[in-house]
Amino acid sequence: MNDPAVDVVELLVTASRFNDDRSLDADDLPPRYRRVFWTEHDDDGDEPGGVQRPLTVTESTAKTATGIERPWEAVSDELFTDRDDFDGTLSLTESSMGVSWLLDRVEDDRLLSNPVLAKIAEEATDDPPVTYEAARDETRPIQADRVWIDALLEEYFDEEEDAEMLDLVTVRAPEEIETTLDDLVLTGDQEGEIQKLVTAIEHRDYLAEIGLREIGKLLFVGPPGTGKTSVARGIAHDLGLPVVEVKLSMVTSQYLGETAKNVEKTFEVAKRLAPCILFIDEFDSVAKTRRSDEHAALKRAVNTLLKSIDDISLINDEVLLVSATNHPDQLDAAAWRRFDEIVNFPKPDRQMRADILRVITREMEIGDFDPEIVADKTEGLTGSDLRMVLREAVLEALTDDRRTITQADVMDAVEDFEERDNLKTMDMIDGEGATVAGDGGHDHTHDH
After folding, report:
1. Vertex 175 angle, CA 22 and 106, to 5°
2. How far apart are CA 360 and CA 214, in angstroms?
3. Which distant-in-sequence residues (6+ apart) come within 8 Å of 413 by Cβ?
């Protein structure tokens, strides 16, 4: 359990050092502090907001940054702290004493989450447990914060003129994404593709030097509910990158006269937010539109889309492009060859269903549960389907005033699920994707 005094003193020490050390920038502050000290505009009011010096710690900002209800009470007994009775400002009266007090009480995990504190600790010993560079690498940049994302969108896009386009995209900050890659059940092939991707991002300067720029454009292929969206979000969370999500069917079916422009601006949003992930769902809408004579504006939009995919680059623009389709059979060669990697997301096999069930139920109160037996009875179900089954079992237990579910509850929920009329057409239902990814292989039979 955290000591409230340690939390408040860490904030005071961090703010004091940040104010004095001009070599530090906003990326050195933990995200939990950046949100508190973010300002909408600079002093002149004509530049976008940011974190500006000096950082002033009041009881209000300390409460928000640390979650401590009464910050001053937590540190008032320490000889090195002070409070201004007029404006409630908290400060260090003896900075070196405060630093020594704090370093005696913090663990390595806290140093790793705060580059400013890690730098202080590194200077205080010849053999620091955590280096400043390591903490800096572990702390996501300010470009991934919600406040920064909102400020950038406001700066570059007109609220009225670009309203239609902005309605078509969803921008998620890493802090808003709950799914992590550890929450997902992946196959070796899927894990391998993710690892290659992470390696490419880490070494993109080298790849640029040797002229290997056509990399970082992935196509996820598989039925609804097999984890395509969840994997894209999990990558964004784990890499600390914002994700720009767009459903292609919406782009190609709304605001016909503006469709091509909206496609261009969708890619512009991604480039402005870089480094980020651009996730294009329902990519098969391209093929449907290319075969359609319905409207010339749609064809122009598709041509614009394909050209935009050609022009965007992980190496040059720091944008990872991930597209997903439930209907790979509808894509033509022109669409296939835009991607350097194809990742398969078929429905999970028996062992993966058992593993998925273990992941879903790990936070649940469940007795006498055998996921292997449930896996035997759920052939053909996706990770999303299995989550629905467990949700039904939990709700049924709650109606009986129980918070502990049983194997019988789960098996009854499986039976109910199988009786649904839409089960026979489950592959044709558009979905957001499962929380758990299904089995997969790698398919390179497409035309490059």
Report:
1. 55
2. 37
3. 389, 390, 392, 393, 396
Name all domains of the chain by residue range, CATH numbers in brackets: 4-139 (no CATH), 146-344 (3.40.50.300), 350-428 (1.10.8.60)
The enclosing H or E element of 343 equals strand 341-344
Q: How far apart are CA 53 and CA 354, in angstroms?
A: 53
Residues 6+ apart with CB under 8 A from 324: 219, 220, 221, 228, 229, 232, 279, 280, 281, 282, 283, 433
CA 56 to CA 90: how far, in whole Å?
Answer: 8
Cα(302)–Cα(287) distance, rounded to whole angstroms? 9
Interval 62-113: pLDDT, tens: 999 999 999 999 999 999 999 998 888 999 999 999 999 999 999 999 999 9
Cβ atoms of residues 434 and 230 within 8 Å: yes
HSE, side-chain direction, 13 A CA sphere, residue 348: 32
The CB density around residue 403, as the number of other CB atoms within 10 Å, is 9
Side-chain-facing half-sphere of 212: CA atoms under 13 Å: 11
Q: Which of 271, 283, 266 is nearest to 228 (CA)?
A: 283
Cα 179 to chain center, whole Å?
7
Per DSSP, the three-state class of 246 is strand
Q: How many whole angstroms separate alpha carbon 348 and alpha carbon 440?
A: 8
DSSP class of residue 442? Answer: B
| Number of residues assigned to the chain | 448
Specify the pTM. Answer: 0.79
Distance in angstroms (rounded) separating the CA atoms of residues 221 and 234: 17
b/e per residue, 153-184, with b = 16+ CB within 10 A?
beeebeeeebeebbebbebbbbbebebebebb
Distance separating alpha carbons of residues 386 and 413, to the nearest angstrom: 10
Using an 8 Å Cβ cutoff, are 287 and 245 in contact? no
Those residues with Cβ within 8 angstroms of residue 316's Cβ, 6 or more apart along the chain or in another chain: 208, 213
The span from the CA of 322 to the CA of 339, in Å, is: 9
- Alpha-carbon distance of 90 to 88, in angstroms, equals 6
Q: What is the mean pLDDT of each run of 10 residues along the chain (448 residues)?
A: 89 97 95 90 58 93 95 95 93 95 94 96 91 93 90 83 79 91 89 89 86 86 93 92 87 61 85 93 71 62 85 91 91 85 92 94 88 93 93 93 92 86 50 44 38
The dihedral through the CA atoms of 329, 333, 338, 343 has a sign that is positive
CB-hemisphere CA count at 13 Å for 252? 27
Q: Are strands 217-221 and 341-344 parallel, antiparallel or unpaired?
A: parallel
